[in-house]
């Protein structure tokens, strides 16, 4: 493949922009600066842009430990997006599979594979999401049965799907849901007269947040983790 086409594909730029990078001596192939747009590169070549390796990539899959204050969209007028946390080529081509609110932390999945993310977010596929919840008022035992039976959310038709609530502290619980309605966890607790003051997603499907990831850190998913959402 011509080097300028390779750069266009991996960096998401035009061939003219690729040519400028080459003229500015910003591209190395196998440790040597290359300025020729027609230079041929193959699978065995190591191409770098400003010291960053470039590779023709298939679909990408990442888990992020999302911090507070970041939104799960590409553009926001008030908050930074989760994509600024990624030191990857063309992060704008990825999307979040199951968004979290800006003040919610924890397991966030990002990919550029739309069919894969559909397996996580589509109501047709029952995918569990597990949250650690902190509330303003004590969580009462009655809430367990209420969430199991389904609750009525303001503005929604019908009840929520059965959800499992485990009370782990006076104002702390672990909630497992199989839907992804807008602000669902907060609205569920509001429906029983309580208010969520802290929310952290611990698990999606069988995939748990990597405990080694600090807030704001991410890592690629393993082949086994990727496949776990396709086995249903």
From TrEMBL:
<dbReference type="InterPro" id="IPR020094">
    <property type="entry name" value="TruA/RsuA/RluB/E/F_N"/>
</dbReference>
<dbReference type="GO" id="GO:0160136">
    <property type="term" value="F:16S rRNA pseudouridine(516) synthase activity"/>
</dbReference>
<dbReference type="InterPro" id="IPR042092">
    <property type="entry name" value="PsdUridine_s_RsuA/RluB/E/F_cat"/>
</dbReference>
<feature type="domain" description="RNA-binding S4">
    <location>
        <begin position="1"/>
        <end position="59"/>
    </location>
</feature>
<dbReference type="Pfam" id="PF00849">
    <property type="entry name" value="PseudoU_synth_2"/>
</dbReference>
<dbReference type="InterPro" id="IPR036986">
    <property type="entry name" value="S4_RNA-bd_sf"/>
</dbReference>
<dbReference type="InterPro" id="IPR006145">
    <property type="entry name" value="PsdUridine_synth_RsuA/RluA"/>
</dbReference>
<dbReference type="GO" id="GO:0003723">
    <property type="term" value="F:RNA binding"/>
</dbReference>
<comment type="function">
    <text>Responsible for synthesis of pseudouridine from uracil-516 in 16S ribosomal RNA.</text>
</comment>
<dbReference type="InterPro" id="IPR002942">
    <property type="entry name" value="S4_RNA-bd"/>
</dbReference>
<keyword id="KW-0694">RNA-binding</keyword>
<comment type="similarity">
    <text>Belongs to the pseudouridine synthase RsuA family.</text>
</comment>
<dbReference type="Pfam" id="PF01479">
    <property type="entry name" value="S4"/>
</dbReference>
<dbReference type="InterPro" id="IPR020103">
    <property type="entry name" value="PsdUridine_synth_cat_dom_sf"/>
</dbReference>
<dbReference type="GO" id="GO:0005829">
    <property type="term" value="C:cytosol"/>
</dbReference>
<keyword id="KW-0413">Isomerase</keyword>
<dbReference type="GO" id="GO:0000455">
    <property type="term" value="P:enzyme-directed rRNA pseudouridine synthesis"/>
</dbReference>
<dbReference type="InterPro" id="IPR000748">
    <property type="entry name" value="PsdUridine_synth_RsuA/RluB/E/F"/>
</dbReference>
<dbReference type="InterPro" id="IPR050343">
    <property type="entry name" value="RsuA_PseudoU_synthase"/>
</dbReference>
<protein>
    <recommendedName>
        <fullName>Ribosomal small subunit pseudouridine synthase A</fullName>
        <ecNumber>5.4.99.19</ecNumber>
    </recommendedName>
</protein>
């Amino acid at each position: 493949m011509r080097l300028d086409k390779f750069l266009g594909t991996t960096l998401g730029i035009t061939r003219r922009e690729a040519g400028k990078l080459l003229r500015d001596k910003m591209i190395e192939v196998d440790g040597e600066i290359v300025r020729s747009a027609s230079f041929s590169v193959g699978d065995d070549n190591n191409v770098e842009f400003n010291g960053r390796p470039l590779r023709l990539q298939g679909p990408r899959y990442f888990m992020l430990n999302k911090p507070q204050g970041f939104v799960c969209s590409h553009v926001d007028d008030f908050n930074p997006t989760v994509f600024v946390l990624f030191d990857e080529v063309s992060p704008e081509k990825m999307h979040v599979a199951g968004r979290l609110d800006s003040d919610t932390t924890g397991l966030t999945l990002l990919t550029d594979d739309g069919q894969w993310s559909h397996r996580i977010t589509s109501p047709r596929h029952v995918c569990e999401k597990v949250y650690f919840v902190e509330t303003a008022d004590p969580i009462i035992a009655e809430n367990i049965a209420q969430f199991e039976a389904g609750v009525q959310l303001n503005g929604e038709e019908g009840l929520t799907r059965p959800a499992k609530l485990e009370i782990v502290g006076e104002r702390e619980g672990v909630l497992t849901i199989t839907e992804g309605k807008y602000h669902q966890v907060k609205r569920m607790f509001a429906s029983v007269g309580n208010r969520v003051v802290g929310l952290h997603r611990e698990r999606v499907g069988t995939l748990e947040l990597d405990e080694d990831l600090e807030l704001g850190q991410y890592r690629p998913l393993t082949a086994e983790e990727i496949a776990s959402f396709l086995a249903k």
